[in-house]
Specification:
By secondary structure, the protein is of the alpha/beta class. The protein has helices at 12-27, 51-67, 78-82, 84-88, 105-117, 122-125, 144-148, 199-203, 211-223, 249-259, 277-285, 302-308, 314-327, 346-358, 386-409, and strands at residues 3-8, 31-32, 41-46, 72-77, 93-98, 156-157, 183-188, 207-208, 228-233, 264-267, 292-294, 332-339, 363-368, 415-423, 428-433, 438-442, 450-459, 462-467.
Length: 473
């Protein structure tokens, strides 16, 4: 029996797609290997949101080829969609399959693996030959292959991502916590055109998983015993807009509550303009929805937001976050913030710093701008020096750490609901609170159980606490 291993890079959406690929390969009779070194087929599901993500993928390809030279390396994902010939040039790569053909990956990889094992049957086994796109028809912005002056003959399966309507996803589980908190991708693609972002060009237009399919997946997860579910997407708040039934994201949330026995629903990142009054009220008033809002900000400067082509202004953003805090006083509120965007002046960064200081954030994801080939921002003048961007990144991270610590300390001595993740040692169990705080619960407890916890202190960046009542929620 042939074996496979899937390694995912990047966001939750990529992880969900990797889970779907694993499911499809297993349905074809392949066995999951423990690691890439022991697999016959190695699938690398890449990200391309930054230059660093590209480097990580290339490093992983070289490592797999070095440690397992006989493996068939299949590269897929966003990097494969953006620059397939760069990846095809790397030693050991057997196939490059873009997001446009990711839904066919299991069929393509399995067929070509069988063809390699039985060359005389290659012609009859190659079911996806019509999906192959010659290199001469590909259009990419840069070519690492050309710079390396290498020839490459790995088959490439890439076509116009905007012509595709498929949505590949399956519930995905944290590698360390497979018994808790599955993640379900319900939306893919993005119709925004932020000037710094390559994602729309590698994932295509916004498209939604149909409501009945989502409810089937939720029911299956509840039946399997899961107590919390995270729903996610590339632009999650746009769910339903393409389904032709006047559906909105809040309709999906309400449908999950009304049609399933799920104990706790957690919502992933939602853009500020999609945090409607109705959604805020729904999250605030339902005990079955985690009190947690992630609201991407990117910048607190109006001028920078305009250059980014973001669809909101700082005052709009502030109004949404303050409304979330007023409705949910104990909620975790997080944001993505970018520093070093082209032309960002000291004064513009100070506006971002002021916004972060004065808004009730409890954590931040801070990123330094990374030029992405083909995006408008690459052509903008006054690129920010790396040393300046790095210093701004440090300042925001330190501020975010202070805010997170203050938020955690505000709950010492109070009662919170927390779900057990796994046992840390003989004396405590790792947990996550309803409002997204790491907590260490005294004693050994089975994973995937909700407990009322009385918090006692903050230690090593985590709340410490003990069960507040005999019975779990």
């Amino acid at each position: 029996m042939a074996s496979f291993y899937v390694q995912n890079f990047g966001c939750r959406a990529t992880q969900a797609e990797g889970a779907a690929i694993e499911r499809q390969l297993e349905e074809r009779g392949l066995a999951r290997a423990s690691d890439a070194a022991n697999a016959e087929i190695v699938v690398l599901n890449t990200c391309t949101v930054t230059a660093s993500a590209d480097r990580d993928a290339r490093t992983a390809i070289r490592r797999v080829n070095r440690e397992n030279p006989h493996a068939r390396i299949v590269v897929t994902g966003c990097y494969a969609q953006r620059a397939p010939e760069e990846l095809a040039a790397l030693p050991g790569v057997a196939q490059v399959i873009g997001n446009s053909h990711k839904h066919l990956l299991a069929e393509i990889a399995f067929t070509d693996h069988a063809a390699a094992a039985h060359p005389t049957k290659a012609s009859q086994n190659r079911k996806c030959a019509d999906a192959f796109v010659p290199l001469s028809r590909l259009t990419t912005s840069t070519s690492l292959a050309a710079s390396l002056n290498k020839n490459y003959s790995s088959p490439i399966f890439v076509s116009d991502i905007f012509a595709h309507t498929e949505l590949l996803a399956a519930p995905v589980f944290d590698a360390a916590n497979e018994r808790t908190r599955p993640n379900l991708k319900v939306q893919d693609g993005c119709d925004n055109r932020c000037s710094f972002c390559v994602i729309p060009f590698v994932r295509g237009q916004s498209r939604s998983l149909k409501l009945d399919e989502i409810l089937r997946e939720v029911d299956a997860l509840v039946t399997a015993g899961y107590r919390e579910l995270v729903i996610s997407g590339i632009n999650l708040g746009r769910w339903g807009r393409d389904l032709g039934a006047a559906l909105r994201f809040e309709d999906l949330v309400q449908a999950i509550l009304e049609n399933s026995g799920l104990e706790k629903l957690r919502i992933s990142s939602v853009e500020p303009m999609d945090w409607s009054d109705e959604l805020i009220s729904l999250v605030a008033n339902s005990p079955r929805i985690a009190k947690h809002a992630h609201v991407p900000m990117q910048s607190g400067s109006d001028a920078v937001l305009r250059r980014m082509h973001r669809k909101y202004r700082p005052w709009h953003y502030r109004e949404r976050v303050e409304k979330i805090r007023a409705a949910m006083p104990t909620a975790a509120i997080g944001a993505d913030v970018m520093v070093g965007f082209p032309g960002e002046t000291d004064a513009e960064f100070d506006e971002t710093l002021h916004m972060v200081t004065t808004l009730p954030f409890t954590y931040l994801h801070v990123f330094t701008y990374s030029a992405r080939p083909g995006t408008p921002a690459v052509q903008m003048k006054k690129q920010v020096r790396s040393q300046v961007a790095s210093e701004r990144n440090r300042m925001l991270r330190e501020l975010a750490s202070e805010k997170k610590l203050a938020f955690m300390r505000s709950f010492v001595g109070k009662r919170l609901d927390a779900i057990t993740l796994n046992e840390r040692d003989s004396e405590s169990t790792e947990c996550l609170t309803d409002n997204y705080l790491p907590l260490r619960l005294r004693g050994q407890h089975q994973a995937n159980h909700w407990f009322p916890v009385r918090t006692e202190s903050v230690r090593e960046g985590k709340l410490m606490g003990a069960v507040d009542a005999e019975s779990a929620l």
